[in-house]
Amino acid sequence: MKHIKTGRRIAAVMLCLCMLLPLTGCGESKMSQRQVFAMDTVMTLTAYGNRAEAGLDAAQSVIQSMDSMLDPELETSTTYAINHANGANVSVSGQVAEMLSTASTVYRQSGGALDLSLYPVIKRWGFTNGRYYVPTDDELAQDLSRKCFDKMILTSFPSSGSYAVSFPSYAEITFGAVAKGCASENAVAAMRNAGVTSGIVSLGGNVQTLGLKPDGSNWNVAICDPNNTSSYLGVISVGETAVITSGTYQRSFTQNNKTYHHLINPETGYPINNTLSSVTIICEDGTMADCLSTAMFILGESKALNYWRTYGGFEMILVNKDNQITCTKGLMEDFTLSNDSYTLKYTE
Fold it and tell me: Residue 22 has what pLDDT?
């Protein structure tokens, strides 16, 4: 997006490097790699084999198409059309319908922890353009009055395979909490359709893998250290899946010696204040993983674990401000702690 500044690009590159370890043991298989800037993030795309370049072309095309489609400030985008529809139906793609449907499911199950209609609040804080500002209570109350994700109407037309969505006339939504997860999922699908059987996409704090490494071994994905983003706290060994992290360190600003991060409490309009510093979700569905990483962070440790126990379908790494890591039991054989400043426990 055009308003992103160079400094934020550099920060995104560092995050990418932190999330993805060097891929060792890949044999002699041809590797192609490409960097793309989209969705406010520097993205690294990697593919192996004779169809690698074709796969990267296909993945890049998908990502750039989704970037243009989802930018809420771009007048030709789907998001802009939704936000200026005055309550009317807007035709949307299958990708947008998938994001809205998945986000709606997590919204209901989490009691509103993930809310795509918080765009007025996010804009007020300046997280959309870097012009940071601490709002007044009255300003936040005004913006929060426009929350309406529970009033979304998503309609499917099976005969034509099309979709339409409508929101109340006062709605303004953003796909920021789900776009990169959906983009990585669709980028991997595009690589697969182009004939690639081994690859990985790293979109900021989002990593999605395609198949296994060329030598048949698992991928090693590093989990960023929230206290030192140039390092990592551990490594997770995965097959084909998504690994998506939300953390307070990813976007923040300091004013009057107080730091404000971008993970907003939908109830108060202020950055959530709980014991967590990062949440990592491991889930085959990249769109769902992205939704869950935000929602679980907002819920906090205890409620996030209760959500996992109730609904399942994913694994999770919770890092709190006391440098304690809690992993769900499915990661016992896959997560390796590599930073002795943290303590690790697994939970049932």
Answer: 41
Could you tell me the two tokens for 49? 């084999």
Instruction: Enumerate residues 6+ apart whose C-beta is below 8 A from 84.
Output: none
- In which residue ranges of the chain is pLDDT below 50? 1-18, 20, 22-26, 28
Instruction: Say if CB 203 and CB 309 are below 8 A apart.
Output: no
The pLDDT score that the predictor gives to residue 110 is 98
Q: From 141, 160, 157, 150, select the one nearest 117 (Cα to Cα).
A: 150
SS3 string of the chain? CCCCCHHHHHHHHHHHHHHECCCCCCCCCCEEEEEEEECCEEEEEEEECCCHHHHHHHHHHHHHHHHHHHCCCCCCCHHHHHHCCCCCCEEECHHHHHHHHHHHHHHHHCCCCCCCCCHHHHHHHCCCCCCCCCCCHHHHHHHHCCCCHHHCEEEEECCCCEEEEECCCCCCCCCCCCHHHHHHHHHHHHHHHCCCCCEEEEECCEEEEECCCCCCCCEEEEEEECCEEEEEEEEEEECCCEEEEEECCCCEEEECCEEEECCECCCCCCECCCCEEEEEEEECCHHHHHHHHHHHHHHCHHHHHHHHHHHCCCEEEEEECCCEEEEEHHHCCCEEECCCCCEEEEEC
- Whole-angstrom Cα distance, residue 252 to residue 237? 30
Query: Could you tell me the pTM of the whole model?
Result: 0.92
pLDDT at 29: 74
State how far the Cα of 317 lies from the Cα of 49, in Å rounded to an integer: 32
